[in-house]
Amino acid sequence: MEPLQVTNQELRIQFPGKLIFGKGVLSKLAEEISSLECSSVFIVTITPLLPKLEELVQQLREQGISTTFDTSIVQEPTFSDFENLMEQAEQANPDVVVGIGGGSVLDVAKLVAAQLGNEQTLQEIVGIGNLKGRSRKLICLPATAGTGSEVSPNAILLDDADNQKKGIISPFLLPDIVYVDPLLTMSVPAHITAVTGLDALTHCLEAYTNKFSQPFIDMFALEGIRLIGANLAKAVQNGEDEEARTHVAMGSMLGGFCLGPVNTAGVHALAYPLGSMFHLAHGLSNALLLPYVMEFNLPAAPERFAAIAVALGCTPGSNHQETAQKGIAKIRSIIKQCGAPARLRDVNIPQDAILSMAQDAMKITRLLKNNPRPITVIDAVDIYTAAY
Questions:
Q1: Strand 154-159 to strand 164-169: parallel, antiparallel, or no bridges (unpaired)?
Q2: What is the pLDDT of residues 183-200, one digit of tens each?
Q3: Which residues are bridge partners to 168 per DSSP?
Q4: Of 25, 175, 253, 337, which sits 20 to 30 A from 151 (CA to CA)?
């Protein structure tokens, strides 16, 4: 497989300090926290998960460790959501911050750990590499198989001032300890399983076809595509399928590993305005645009898109182009099997918003620069129109 281009882009990989993956590993978390010799823990989570955490809290109490919960993050968080939550976190002043939930919960937990005792303001750490450090221990447990936030150096917040999604990217956002327990995803509703899984699939696809793809990351990306492609519809259609849930959780984590060294590209850039302007869930925004951006990018990397098709289980065609088209058709099929909407009109996006969305997407230069084919505002209009 030839690389997209010869590049001097250096490969920089930073992994969490410790990673535990397996069914039921949540039961070992109290022992892990206790080994840190801490006195207080701040847990960012969601209300539906609280019953699953009762045993953890009891075990920590027995060790003399106090716990404070925050369940205020119920949608993609804004700057003000985070700053309100930080007031509670500062009062608790914990030794350890734990995030247990979906991507938004994990992103916020990562930022809480970073900002406790940090004199930098939130605005000062926005961007790539601006966060100077982290003084509190950080543990993350994903409860959805989607964002890969548990192993990525990224956190995303919506800026109330300009309604733009802003990224904070720093190695200091990588957790010290990650527990991935696929059983935590078992109670996730089908529609959330679908869109979070499609988000994870997009991470892998965009890393593999990235302008700055790396052979080391290609391994994670292709295996993530294989695992999610073969198992996501099963997990959506039967939420009790432990094997499918486990494979999708592993694929999601592999997608998360792609985000630091390589990151995403055109799909995510064009998806952001759907979230900021119309408050669509991030995974759904990606799912709506994925096949259309793939069609647009195909001429720039046909051999890479052909490899994706094979990873998705398609039989090779007579050339890369033909094989790649089978892969795009397979993506459409997976989206349909998952019951996710396939058109912008299906989620009530007005057609007259397309130009403003395209203009908004052009601001996401940190992701557009990764796309294998340059995307102009006219191209963005065309992609949104095709997806309409």
A1: antiparallel
A2: 999 989 999 999 999 999
A3: 127, 155
A4: 337
> What is the pLDDT confidence band of residue 8, given thresholds at 50, 70 and 90?
low
Q: Give the dihedral of Cα atoms 113, 115, 119, 121; nearest 10 deg.
A: 160
Cβ atoms of 103 and 75 within 8 Å: the answer is: no
Which tokens belong to 60?
A: 């920590």
One-letter identity of residue 292: Y
pLDDT at 5 over 70: no
| Nearest Cα to Cα of residue 137 among 119, 118, 113 | 113
Between CA 80 and CA 87 the distance in angstroms is 11
- The span from the CA of 174 to the CA of 170, in Å, is 8
Q: Which of 252, 284, 265, 264 is nearest to 387 (CA)?
A: 284
What does the pLDDT look like over 213-235, one tens digit per residue?
Answer: 999 999 999 999 999 999 999 99
Q: Which of 243, 341, 289, 19 is nearest to 148 (CA)?
A: 19
| 8 A C-beta contact, residue 71 and residue 46 | yes
Q: Which residues of 351-382 are buried (b: 16+ CB within 10 A; e: fewer)?
A: eebbeebbebbbebeebbebbbbebeeebbbb
Cβ atoms of residues 185 and 143 within 8 Å: yes
Q: What is the CA radius of gyration of the chain?
A: 20
The torsion angle over the Cα atoms of residues 70, 73, 362 and 371, rounded to 10 degrees, is 80
Model pLDDT, residue 3: 43
What one-character-per-residue DSSP string does 78-108 give?
BHHHHHHHHHHHHHH--SEEEEEESHHHHHH
The two three-digit tokens of residue 63, written as one number: 């060790």
Q: What is d(CA 109, CA 149) in angstroms, rounded to the nearest whole number?
A: 10
pLDDT in tens, 337-358: 999 999 999 999 999 999 999 9
**Counting beta carbons within 10 angstroms of the beta carbon of residue 287, is it exposed (0 to 12), middle (13 to 18) or buried (19 or more)?**
buried
**155: phi then psi, degrees, rounded to nearest 5:** -140, 140
Dist CA 234 CA 186 (whole Å): 12
